Amino acid sequence: MAVEWARLKPQGAVELADRGIFLRGDGGCRLMLLHGLTGCPTELGYLAHWLRSRGRYHVSCPRLVNHGQPLGVLARTTSAQLYQSAKDAFLEARAAARAEGVPLVVGGLSLGANLSLMLAAEFPDDVAGAACLAPTLFYDGWSVPWYHRLIPLVDYTPLKYFTYFREDEPFGLKDKSLRAKIAARYRETSLRDSSDAAKFGYAHFPVRLFCEMQRLIGMCKRALPRVACPVLVVQAEQDDITGPRNAQFIIEHVGSPRRELLLLKRSYHLVSADLERSTVADHLQQFCGSLALPRSESSKAERPHAKIAA
Fold first, then answer.
1. Of 136, 131, 120, nearest in space to 218 by CA
2. Do 274 and 88 touch, CB atoms closer than 8 A?
3. 58-62/20-23 β-pairing
4. In a domain, 149, yes or no
């Protein structure tokens, strides 16, 4: 990650074309997946469509607060706002699951995995399972630069308002063809132009957002003992951002009696889109299937008048 400096002019929010990915199913389960920090729902698109077409589940991948907005807007986002936006999406999904009479599974990628665990801890009676893809508690991957360890110190200085990390290869991807497409897209992006962020994520990472992420990590660690639902953790052995220690920490500290770990050998951080994405999708489908109602039972449970669009 290269370091860039800028004092961005005040930027206002813009109207986005969508709120995320929302797929209506008729299976016995509803699944909500949350994307990563500076990411977008697209990074979960493969999983969402797989689970809808093969599991016939209701799947939602909502856009977290300020993601897709100009970089200056995203940079001002706080940890409280991030969790609140996840909670708002969860409450919407919970209402739909209750109306349909089906269990609700929450999950996510990177930050989204952390948020899903926090939701499972806060709402133990409403979360049937938590699926954690490349959870981020320690930035200990092989591509993380040494100066990343200085962020806790930078948090107490004005530097955090003007410092940005520019995303660099491998972009969390071992898939060379997909990596090349991201590289080409990011080469055209500057600090003052993030117009494609809603679809492709951001080429820059505001350091002040990293500071907020540290607060969320602390909250997530403290919540782990209160996670009682079944937990699936998916971790790449060669993760360039967050190594296997992250998965092991969660497996050892959650309160759930059912803890499953899937280790991938040919993927980096973006396990939902990388070379083994079909393996991830298949395991996620099996995990949800073990928690889902039989389709005939779920069809009876859904009230005819409760037509809640996903």
1. 136
2. no
3. antiparallel
4. yes
